[in-house]
Amino acid sequence: MQKRGAVVVVGALALAACSGDDGGGPGAVAAQYAVASTVFGDEGTTTYVVFLDALDAGDVDLSSAREFAGWATIGGVERMLFVGDGEAPTLTRYSADEQGTFAESGRLSFLDFGAAGALYRNVFGDSSRAFMAVDDVQRVAWDPTTLEAIGVVELEGVDTARDGLAVRASFDRGAVAREGRVLHPHYFADDDYYRFAPASQIAVIDTATGEAREVLEAPCPGLDVASVDEAGNAYFSNWVFSAPAPHFDESAPRPCVVRVPADRDAVDTTWTRDLSTLVGDRPTAAFRYLADGVALVAVLHTEELPADVVPGQAALATAWRLWRVDTTSWTAAPIDELGLFSGGYYAFRVGGDRTIVLLPTNDYGSTSAYEIGAEGAPTLRFTIPGWAYQLVELGE
Predict the structure, then answer these.
(1) What's CA 361's distance to the chain center, in Å?
(2) Is residue 139 a part of any domain in this protein?
(3) What secondary structure does DSSP assign to 159-212, as a single string?
(4) Torsion over CA: 153, 154, 156, 158 (sign)
(5) In this structure, is residue 281 part of a structural domain?
(6) 6 pLDDT above the threshold of 70
(7) Domain total for the chain?
(8) Are strands 379-385 and 58-59 parallel, antiparallel or unpaired?
(9) Does some domain include residue 4?
(10) Distance CA 247, CA 251 (A)
């Protein structure tokens, strides 16, 4: 196993934010949520950022959305929303005043650091520290409040490769912020994201310095999705790409879920679960805690796979269903109302105890947002044109 060296801070450059408007969308708006949706067209890809004052928005109209070229991405902390430009390594910040009205309040460029500036590759520790990826083990530490880029930090203790498989870091769906630190999973995969090492690592990162306090060994492949229960216990599981291989090759590592208890930064080795035993021995991915001991998991219904499916493409087939898992009785049942969908799903905790799931159509031409609870049928909250996989609660 190869390891990275010590933490290195490259420069202490502080980039001053500049104000201005890119001419797209509204100026100031009052909102409680922001949604980013990417639309594919003959003339290219465009991302629309929509501000919503409620989740029961029905059919969302993009005519008043703020428009960004390419694959723009969003993220937020407290009452600040950040948009990563789709064609430049630049973040634009939107802040709220006392009336809850949002307006552009500054910009930050990562051009001098080699980072892309895409928010899906960023981890927020708190309102004064975030980490934008340069690669899978290096990231730029920056301050969301002052819009200052502090320098490049390299994690010590995270392996660069295992068994010829390169390290990969989880970002938009995998990190958990705790007081003074961030739990950030890393895993090992080939270039096709089909072969995975049987174990992953979870770096415990000091929020203030960006240094890894320690690196935890986790006995599951491809850890790339995280969620937290009412007690503060954190759960880490795989994304869809690592799920199909065991169906085609018995020697491939089987997906599983690990738990890091709220009272200590250590993997609870007595809890680790292979959920396939609950769902008819089917592959699973994206375990996310809901409430009251119930979680959500995506299940690949291999009986629905086309006969000629290529193993490396099975993860994207329209052969997945969402199931609820009762972690008290360790039973599971499909959510039949949602039917089959293709590949991964994105879920977001809002209001402290509500979960919103974004499910795109098979052609990614539109996305439906469902609220899913521990029991009962899902409730459709809104639909939006394009592929929406990012939702930010803007707070009070």
Answers:
(1) 19
(2) yes
(3) EEEETTEEEEE--TTT-EEETTEEEEEEEEE-TTS--B-S-EEEEEEETTT--E
(4) positive
(5) no
(6) no
(7) 1
(8) parallel
(9) yes
(10) 10
